């Protein structure tokens, strides 16, 4: 029997997976082992520190339930979610960039008419409109456009029992010219949930928990890749320091003040979808 030395230890552990029947699982677990070992060596991790690490991960798991997913929040705040987004989005020059779905998406919202107002609470009125098109600029008709955002108090409808059911959530279809329009509110910046271990990690490391004001969009159309993205307000103080790293400059929009029957902000924005690869 050969003694394990610090030089042979990592290879011995990765070799222990050599009989793994699934090549992808084997690739992932052996790379994970190599990076974990390198990490521990690089920072010369102590037993005491790793015990704290395990306590933190345990608390993260305990905070999860059917609604709250603290591990996703951890992945978001460590920038891992947006790395995955970058690796996995097929991005073509002309197409709209993606951003994080976040934990507040809700399925099953009733479809509303072109131009409907999704705000049932007070705030600064805003009109969102534009077209859904393909990479050649051809309109995509009948695309399903789902939107959701926080109320003026920085809370999503599901987080706040004082908001009416379905407040600031909408589901629309683009018309034959690819156009969509809905009325809503100018969004406000808000903190990601801080009442758990991830919030404690942010405070302990001197980070703020704020996301710059944004409206989420999920756009689905037959024959196209689903686009999950968001539009961020250019005048938001946190636009350069999003707690979950989801802002891309192409997704930052101006809210243009306009006068109609009332004062409102106008946001005109097209979304460019990528055709699904034909196999
Ligand atoms: C959100 O934008 O809804 C969100 C994204 C990641 C973590 C928390 C919230
Ligand atoms: Fe959000």
Would you give an account of this structure?
This protein is of the alpha/beta class and 279 residues long. It has two domains: 1-45, no CATH class; 74-273, Aromatic compound dioxygenase (Protocatechuate 3,4-Dioxygenase, subunit A, Sandwich). The chain has six helices and twelve strands. The chain has helices at 9-15, 23-43, 47-63, 70-77, 80-88, 197-204; strands at residues 125-134, 144-148, 169-173, 179-185, 190-191, 210-211, 214-220, 227-233, 252-253, 256-259, 263-268, 271-273. Strands 1, 4, 10, 11 and 12 form a five-stranded mixed β-sheet that branches. Strand 7 and strand 8 form a beta hairpin. Helix 1 packs antiparallel against helix 2 (23-43). The chain is globular, with a radius of gyration of 23 Å. The structure holds benzoic acid and fe (iii) ion. The site of benzoic acid (BEZ) has 9 residues, from helix 4. The site of benzoic acid has 9 residues, from helix 4.
Q: Indicate the CATH class of the largest domain.
A: Mainly Beta
List the total number of helices. Answer: 6
Give a count of the beta strands, DSSP E runs of length 2 or more.
Answer: 12
Number of domains: 2
- CATH topology name of the largest domain, in short, is Protocatechuate 3,4-Dioxygenase, subunit A
Please state the structural category: alpha/beta
CATH superfamily of the largest domain: Aromatic compound dioxygenase
Tell me what the CATH architecture of the largest domain is: Sandwich
**Cα-atom Rg, whole angstroms?**
23 Å
Question: Largest sheet, if any?
Answer: 5 strands, mixed
Bulk shape: globular
First-residue to last-residue Cα separation: 52 Å
Our estimate of the beta-strand percent is 15-25%
Quaternary: single chain
Q: What is the helix content?
A: 25-40%
Regions with pLDDT < 50 over 5+ consecutive residues? none
Mean pLDDT value: 95
- Bound small-molecule species: benzoic acid, fe (iii) ion
- The SSE order reads HHHHHEEEEEHEEEEEEE
Keywords: Dioxygenase, Iron, Metal-binding, Oxidoreductase
GO molecular function, one term: catechol 1,2-dioxygenase activity
Pfam family, one: Dioxygenase_C
Protein name: Hydroxyquinol 1,2-dioxygenase
């Amino acid at each position: 029997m050969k003694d394990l030395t610090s030089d042979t230890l990592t290879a011995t552990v990765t070799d222990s997976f050599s009989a793994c029947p699934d090549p992808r699982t084997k690739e992932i677990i052996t790379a994970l082992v190599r990076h974990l070992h390198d990490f521990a060596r690089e920072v010369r991790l102590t037993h005491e520190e790793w015990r704290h690490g395990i306590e933190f991960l345990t608390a993260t798991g305990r905070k999860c339930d059917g609604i709250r997913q603290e591990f996703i929040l951890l992945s978001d705040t460590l920038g891992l979610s947006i790395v995955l987004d970058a690796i996995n989005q097929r991005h073509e020059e002309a197409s709209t960039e993606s951003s994080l779905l976040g934990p507040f998406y809700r399925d099953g919202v009733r479809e509303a008419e072109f131009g409907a107002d999704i705000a049932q609470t007070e705030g600064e009125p805003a009109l969102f409109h534009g077209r859904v098109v393909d990479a050649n600029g051809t309109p995509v008709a009948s695309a399903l456009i789902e939107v959701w955002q926080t109320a003026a108090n920085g809370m999503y409808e599901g987080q706040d029992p004082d908001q009416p059911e379905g407040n600031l959530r909408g589901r629309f279809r683009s018309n034959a010219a690819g156009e969509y329009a809905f009325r809503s509110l100018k969004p406000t910046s808000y903190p990601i949930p801080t009442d758990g271990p991830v919030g404690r990690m942010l405070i302990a490391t001197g980070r703020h928990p704020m996301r710059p004001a944004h409206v989420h969009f999920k756009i689905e159309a037959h024959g196209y890749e689903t686009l999950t993205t968001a539009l961020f307000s250019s005048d938001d103080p946190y636009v350069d320091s999003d707690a979950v790293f989801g802002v891309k400059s192409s997704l930052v929009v101006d809210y243009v003040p306009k006068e109609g029957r009332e004062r409102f902000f106008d946001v005109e924005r097209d979304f460019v979808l990528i055709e699904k690869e034909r196999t």
